[in-house]
Amino acid sequence: MLNKKFLDQANFELQLWNNYFHLAVAFLTQESLQLENFSSAKRAKILNKYGDMRRQIGFEIRDMWYNLGQHKIKFIPEMVGPMLEMTLIPETELRKATIPIFFDMMQCEFHSTRSFQMFENEIITKLDHEVEGGRGDEQYKVLFDKILLEHCRKHKYLAKTGETFVRLVVRLMERLLDYRTIMHDESKENRMSCTVNVLNFYKEIEREEMYIRYLYKLCDLHKECDNYTEAAYTLLLHAKLLKWSEDVCVAHLTQRDGYQATTQGQLKEQLYQEIIHYFDKGKMWEEAIALGKELAEQYENEMFDYEQLSKLLKKQAQFYENIVKVIRPKPDYFAVGYYGQGFPTFLRGKVFIYRGKEYERREDFEARLLTQFPNAEKMKTTSPPSEEIKSSPGQYIQCFTVKPKLDLPPKFHRPVSEQIVSFYRVNEVQRFEYSRPIRKGEKNPDNEFANMWIERTVYTTAYKLPGILRWFEVKSVFMVEISPLENAIETMQLTNDKLDGMVQQHLEDPSLPINPLSMLLNGIVDPAVMGGFANYEKAFFTERYLQEHPEAHEKIEKLKDLIAWQIPYLAEGIRIHGEKITEALRPFHERMEACFRQLREKVEKQYGVRAMPSSLDDRRGSRPRSMVRSFTMPSASRPLSVASVSSLSSDSTPSRPGSDGFALEPLLPKKMHSRSQDKLDKDDPDKDKKDKKKEKRNSKHQEIFDKELRPVDAAPQGSEAVILSETISPLRPQRPKSQVINAIGSERRFSVSPTSPTAQQTPPPVMPRTKLSFSLQSSLELNGMSGMDMAEVPPPLPLKGSMADYGNLMDSQDLLGSPPPPPPPPHHRHLPPPLPSKTPPPPPPKTTRKQTSVDSGIVQ
Q1: Domain-by-domain residue ranges, the chain?
Q2: 268-283 pLDDT, tens per residue?
Q3: Which residue among 299, 430, 440, 760 is least packed, with the fewest CB closer than 10 Å?
Q4: Which CATH superfamily is domain 504-622 in?
């Protein structure tokens, strides 16, 4: 009926024909006709009675398609999906009859547009969904390849482009079938590998929407495994596809409902925030900072969102602090080879470099690897496998530890902190090496270093680690042999670098444990432990070796130079070790010092003296982080309740306020000390003893801090040394010595130096201070009295607020040399004091220090 009534040009009904094809395919693919899902008995009964109706309907669809003639182009690309669904039915004759329809579609579009781009895009998209849904198998891939290649090669214009297309679809089917096979596998690592294979394929053929789709599948797998670093790198691939612009986001760019964005710039901002969060959780703060800088540029100069900018900069500050303070575990790297035909195609015959988890040893990694392949056999050698193993039907796994090769960024062109460099030793690495010792020539029982060669294999991965996976395939391998002398030079260089790095760490953070430094130093200076470089001297520094290897003279001199340079590093390490050891380890340290003295004498005599590198000297003189922290924070030995304030004479300037409310007297010149202070220092015969006790109470960090400040702000030569004291002196102008403030039987006396009248009337300005600093002048003015009438009207006593402990202040006896007066009777406590009389009142009985301090009007 369709062929007779609705096929000619005048009566052709597109919608009717379209409905026919969809209905026929739906009938053919219905569940009740899928005979492969039935038991063998039921399948045989249906075939005997009805036959395979799918084949009959398929043949009918093929014939109706070919009858369309010039109308075929109207069904491309809409009918590609239904036709693909029909050809995927697991019936061989049906597949052979219907797969040629695809070539006919290619040919129709090519004749119309000189290409078959629409057909190609549609079949790739539909094939992904169909295979992921469970359709398709290895036989379909073979038939598709064979049938279409035969048709394309016979066509004059489609021979080359058609063959390229067929190869492309076959490669896609290989990856999709692998992905479907392990999609529900317990091994998430295998699922990740197949996902990356598919997304790399889509990236290669520039199918952006499919590429992004698999990126998010991979990201979800990483989040399930707590691989936050890899999840961040995966999302970063999506962010790189976007621009900082107002271009509208197309549908495939926003595949997740969580992103509320209408422009590419908004979506990229949201992605960057999420990526920075994942980098933070993965302790990859260097990567988070790099993205933060790019995002901050947008907030500051494009979006003008200063609120978001402030939040971002606070995060960056915390990231920088984490880099220098937080100790990050260094993961190990393992080379894994999969040999034998028993492995899936995406692993078979390939070598990968794996990044281990935190604190994961090789034994633990191997056990985890073998659980994924319980039938695999572990190879016990690191030598390349034989052809017999590679072609065997079994599974063989080879696993060994490799060392990442440091590749520092160009910005680190001068020495920097080891805490910063250590990140690049195990991150952003792409080359890895494995060294295997081999012996050449006769074995020397006295010295094994003379003929120990190193066979070094260098592996280069496809991408840097870490990345979107915790492993990457090895793309190139090359091998080199290292001579015994070159091996000795390399070993000495590594030892010096390790020693330098550990010394640097202890200089920057004195709180580090001493045990690693102890083991490293003892292993070098004590010849009974490792033999030291004496083995190199026996092997290479002989006349016989020079005669046999005359070309090695330059390398021998280099080795001697490295030995000589080791001494200053050892000296600094032993000095630090001596400062930090406990008494229990004192004998161990003394033995180590004795060994070092002998070693130093020998090395400097034979190979010369080397001075400490300037970079290490600079680090030694720099202020460690913990010292800065000690300066700004109170300690138990230096409480904040004591304020050290220097009084000013009439010709001096106000002292600068110290951090956290206390001024540092060593920062002030000698002339800035008040005369009353000088008098106190002179009158106190036990001043030196008290200062020594006070210095013992100071924290270690504060002592170091004081030492570092003295060279900068030291007093002029010939002047008296400035001693840190914690006395309290008033900031107001001093009155003549004859004037004495008397209270009712208990008021404290202030002995002051005479000053000029001008200084009394116009005191020097005082900088605002914290509540720990105080000024007697300001206290009197607050009580309604100025500096002019202080001599006539004594100030009222302050109200007692609460009990406080002023036991750490100096006694009145220390200040005045006389016992302090007692407090007034309770009924006179708040009465104004009388005017000074000619005859002073008799001395009252001695009272406590706390009451004296409170009643004397000192404001804390």
Answers
A1: 2-184, 333-482, 504-622
A2: 999 999 999 999 999 9
A3: 440
A4: DOCK DHR2 domain, lobe C (1.20.58.740)
